[in-house]
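User: Show me an example of a complex going from sequences to structure tokens.

Assistant: Sure. Here are the input components:
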Amino acid sequence: MTGALGRRGGRGVGADRGRPAAGPAPGAEGGARAPDAPLLVGTHLGHTYRGLASPVLADISLEVRARELVGVTGPSGSGKSTLLSALGLLLPPSAGRVVVRGEDAWASRSAARRLARECFAWILQNSACLEARTALENVAVALLCQGERRNASVVQAADALEAVGLGERLGAVAATLSGGEPQRVTVARALASGRPVVLADEPTGQIDPAGTDAVAAALRSCATAGRAVVVATHDPRVARRCDRVVELDTVALGRR
Amino acid sequence: MTDWRPSELVREILANLAARPLQSVGAALLAAAVLVGVGLSELSSATSIDATAAGLVASGSTTARIATTTGAALPAAACARLDGQHGIVAVGGIGAVTTVAAASSPSLGFPEAAAVGNLVGALSGGSSAPPGAGLVLSDELASQLGVVPGSYLDIGGRAVRVAAVAALGARDPFFGRLVLAPSAPVGTVQACYVQVATGEYASALPSLLGAFPGVSGLTISTVLPTTPGVPTPAADWAGRLSRFAWVAGGVVLGAVFLLASRARRHELAVYVVTGTRRTAVALLRPGEIDLVVSAGAVVALAWLGLFAVLGHGGWAPARAALVAVTRAALLAVATAPLGLAWMARRDLLTLLKERTS
């Protein structure tokens, strides 16, 4: 295998910085699990894409608890998105286990895995918004799809948008939002969804410094609100706000 | 596990349509236009069949063919004598058929026969050319040879004038490519054709039966009832194809909406990544398509209904058109989930990233 891909368990950059006392996260109730038990655990994760000779990800282990903001950094192609996809159960890893709230997700039946996927809220680099719909509607969807009524959803969505500084842009159509606003909408959606784990893949990749700071602050507020947040980023301004940073090393991506 | 409330899912579908008013109205109008096309195709097919049949009936009701079961010839003079009897409009006989070709189109063989009396009139409702005036061609063959009345054809080294072009195949497809050479009523004919006025067939029948005394195995058959509204094989095929216009319309609409779903795949992926189950996503886009097609179908049905009833064929062909439109709309609606099937084959992150490409 070419190169050691990543460091086992990651590097505890700033591990003792800004980490609040652990407490139960919304939606994190897990039966007999200890209050501080990790919500999400990836153990010895590895992945090799079909057609590639070398793995993109090898032997990465990671634990994330409620109220934690964990950064995943590394150069382009180091496997940050692959790691998030594996942790978020979008991609079955070639090696290792993903445990969500105490359940080994890939050893479970598909129905249980679908249930486990409902723990995750995603924030993506290219602002996954419904472009013809307003910011308010974009956030409300996260509640409507959980069986909420529209009126209640709209109220909670407005609160979430207020929390990320978009209180004045509730009625703006997503396609007209600028800078970091679309990303902040997706952060608000993650906040409003109540899902215990937020996975953010390069959420500041295409926005200006001011927007980056706003998104980073919003991610911080997600963690403060009780969620576990994992953010893949190469932006030091975002990494600085993390409780811990897992750094992935150079990879052999692209060698066939 | 939780999911959308059904009422909220319906409101979401409506909200998505309302969020793109121009596209939604445009799609409904497109659906209406395609469905109107389907309906008009069906309407014209039904109307033309009715019009042809009505035209033939109006021009002489029934054409009877008198021949023998043995294939024996009939006296030409006896055939010609039927002309002028009660209820008979036109009479003519057909002589022996030979295959000839024009020098201008040597590969195009066509049958030529002597036409006794007013055979052209009995077949097409028109008047016959007098003996020696030249040939009478069917309109189909005249078109193929590129001739008009007054043209000359070189047939076997003899220059023959085209005296007339007539719709000979209107009654019997056999005559569709025939050349008739009008001749005097002498000798024999293979069959005698008699055009009988509307409603007079029964009363004329004794005259027909008694016109050929001494001929055994005489048969009289009516031509019109055996080929109602199907003047030529080509028209028959065209009619058959037009009956499947609803399939073409439904497939076209389905393909258009399939492409539209492809353009919206990022949005559908957003729903999934936000937490909407794929089963609910599978209802969102088809739900939009169903509403758009339904709106278009309502417009098309209303327009076609009015068009048909207000003097374009009446209720009977309109009903056939409405059935065709409904079938096309249902076919388009049934193909809507295919767009989702296409999307389901792609992984979520790829679909989300495609927006920026």
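The lines above are the inputs; the final block is the predicted structure for all two components together. Residues 161 and 195 of chain A are 16 Å apart (CA to CA).
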